Amino acid sequence: MVIITPLAFNSFATQSPIERITTTASRTETLADPLPVVVSTISEQQLALIAPTHIEQVLKQIAGANIQHGNGQEYLPALRSAVLTGAGACASLLSAEDGIPLRAAGFCNINELFETHTEMAERIEVLKGPGSALYGSNAVHGVINVITPDTTYGDSLLGIDTGSYGYKRLKLRSGKDFGTQGIGFNASITRDSGYRDDESVNQEKLNLRYRFESNDLLLTSGLTYTHLDQQTAGFITGFESYKDQNLAQANLNPDAFRKARSFRAWSKAQWQSSNNIVTITPYFRNQSMDFLKHFLPGTPLEKNAQTGFGIQSLWQHNYNNDIRIHLGFDTEYTAADFLQNQNEPTQGSAFLVATVPQGKHYDYDVNSTLYAPFISVNWHVKALTISAGARFEHIRYDYDNNMLAGRTRDDGTVCEKGGCRYSRPASSKNSFSNLSPKLGLSYQLNNNHYIYANVSQGYRAPQAAELYQLQRDQEIAELKSETADNLELGLKGHYQQLHYVLSAYAMNKQHSIFRDSDFFTVNDGKSHHRGVEVELNYALSKSIQLALAATHAKHSYSYNQILNDININGNDIDTAPRTLANMQINYQPTDTTQLALEWHHVSRYFTDPENRHEYTGHHLFNLRSAWQLTPQLTLAARITNLTNKAYAERADYTSFSGERYFPGKPRSFMLSASYTW
């Protein structure tokens, strides 16, 4: 049963720090500390105090996570990695809602978390690294799982948020409990006119939930619908241009937009006996998106869509008191289509005008089939738990090119100056198979402390965009799956009012997919990722709590490539700050009043692979407060960027445009009221 608590006003000192539950690591509710992996959680209470307008505001409280907010609901993610960019980079981090991936394995989108109901989630769990056999392609650096609330027990909420720059949001949650059955819904409507010129976000999200239970069966069904209509502001250019208020507020791409719709439905049936739990979860997805690629010459329009269905299954068997076996099979089928069309002639240099033609650039369909059996065994030997598992995954693409193959215009004529930019491979079939082993050890030092280690391998199959959206002379992309070998050690536990997670990891990635200086999509990349992380929660007193999430890491290239006469081997990967830190001080002076001060630090980072250009980093402060006026009514106020710091949410450098930035928002305010019954 979920009890809706917009803000839980409890004495910090009375909270038990050991009861940290996760479902992401095992698909069942499990205590997080004994596991040989790290799963970090943002609770419903934390989410209510943050009242996030973007998921970046939430995930910055996770050590090792670095979500760079673009404009509107757009972002670029990082988890134990540099910020991920490129056509298929999103495939290195799996995004899910209620344990079901948001997209099929070959069709990720770098912004896909805006299709989750983060604003009204029950909690958000982040599994770090490729440590679980439950997840295959795309879970190289980990899993972000947004868990929606079970609204079938009759709790209700009405919330209103209003803030600076025209921000407004309505939140509504309600349900009805009929004993063995229940129904409920969870909805939010957002209107945001934005800080920058000619930008806006209109967004609606809805969750429906149904529950049925009997003596040996629990059936829960869910539905999520999201709609986004966004007018987008792009990069600003020029060295440290984000410090100029007029430039920071300007929008050089007033025609840019993104329109996206997603629909997902699932039904989870769970049967339980004395030694067995069987879970079967069929699901359905349907998504479509139109957006103007304002960052490309000619600003083409992309239209992409996918429809698919799948099944997750899991059998859990307690062989005896010491051995538990997990055996499962996941499968899915997806039909996707992609169209890129340029409506107007290209503007710019003579070379761009000649090589980037008006008309269709790509038009193709891909049918994808995936199947993945997996097994894991947990064996308890006194204080030691051994977790061993493996997952085999096979994915097949059936690609149908709806245009002329090659790098011609859509009418078959040849572009001048060497040929057209965009190249379309002939229709084909591609398949990829991967086996991913996992081994974890967790040793219970005493009742409250654990030492753990895990060795694991992650992988991701090439994405459809990497295989079929080629450029220049490339006629076929001969790619193999990207892999990552991961070693991790750590300590977890609690001492009195301190809960802690300390971890160190070393990951080597091979066969990284990227577009080289000849505009070929290749498989030659290698990189090293080394880091240490700490997450602490400490109740200093009955009224003051300290929380810290920090990481120090080096993400570096480990292969030879000459760019502008520099071999990047050994260089820091661009957009990979060495240090990230987030600290919060929560003060509860009375049973009905709460204050929270947050400090967030991003260290300097290089903005190009040659390490010639850099962003200096920044410090930000946010202040949040809440007052529970009655048992049902809560008021809250928030100030983000308290010191009105001029900073960049994202910085990078290209040879075409030089320094580019997404400017951060100045000091802004939000007032909220929520009523529960």
From TrEMBL:
Domain TonB-dependent receptor-like beta-barrel: 161-642
Top-rank taxon: Bacteria
Any Pfam family: TonB_dep_Rec_b-barrel
Keywords from the UniProt entry: Cell outer membrane, Ion transport, Iron, Iron transport, Membrane, Signal, TonB box, Transmembrane, Transmembrane beta strand, Transport
One cellular-component annotation, GO: cell outer membrane
Annotated localization: Cell outer membrane
Signal peptide bounds: none
PANTHER family, sorted: FERRICHROME IRON RECEPTOR-RELATED, FERRICHROME OUTER MEMBRANE TRANSPORTER_PHAGE RECEPTOR
This protein's name: Ligand-gated channel protein
Organism for this UniProt entry: Pseudoalteromonas porphyrae
